[in-house]
């Protein structure tokens, strides 16, 4: 099996850079987002899709059978999360569940990377790690803890 990665949220601010890194290391790169933008590299096999459409997510993952999945797709603005808290939780949590459920159905389980945020943790002057105290105080941070 060749090395392949599927990046959800490929059209976001970090997607093209992650795609480039995987491509340079010899991975077949696929990506999914609501829309393909001009910054999505030509070598990316693109799949249009909405994370809230569980069947579409299953079809995308099933057609690629990736070795790795990275979820960059999210409402990632704290400010926006206050404006649309229910949508933030729905996309960030339900979208992630759809990815994990689809990944679980694969014959060979892909490794899945979910991106975290310092917004999950209590304010601290010390470096944060997985043992740091959780204390999200906004809808975005709460959605990341919930993931």
Tell me about this structure:
The longest helix is centred in the middle third of the chain and has 20 residues, at 85-104. A five-stranded parallel beta sheet has the order 3-2-1-4-5, with helices on both faces. The chain is α/β, with parallel strands linked by helices and 147 residues long. 37% of the residues lie in helices and 16% in strands. It is globular, with a radius of gyration of 16 Å. The protein has a single domain (4-146), classed as NAD(P)-binding Rossmann-like Domain (Rossmann fold, 3-Layer(aba) Sandwich). Helix 1 links the parallel strand 1 and strand 2. The protein has helices at 15-24, 54-64, 78-83, 85-104, 139-146, and strands at residues 4-8, 28-33, 45-48, 68-71, 111-114. Helix 2 (54-64) runs parallel beside helix 4 (85-104) and helix 4 runs parallel beside helix 5 (139-146). The chain is built from five helices and five strands.
Distance between the termini: 29 Å
Radius of gyration: 16 Å
Please state how the strands of the largest beta sheet are arranged side by side: 3-2-1-4-5
Largest sheet data = 5 strands, parallel
Compute the number of structural domains. 1
Shape: globular
CATH topology, anyone? Rossmann fold
Secondary structure category: alpha/beta
Q: Give the topology string: H per helix, E per strand.
A: EHEEHEHHEH
CATH class: Alpha Beta
How much of the polypeptide forms β-strand, as a percent range? 15-25%
- Indicate the mean pLDDT: 95
What's the number of extended β-strand segments? Answer: 5
Number of helices: 5
Q: What is the CATH architecture descriptor?
A: 3-Layer(aba) Sandwich
Instruction: Specify the CATH homologous superfamily.
Output: NAD(P)-binding Rossmann-like Domain
| Helix proportion range | 25-40%
Low-confidence stretches: none
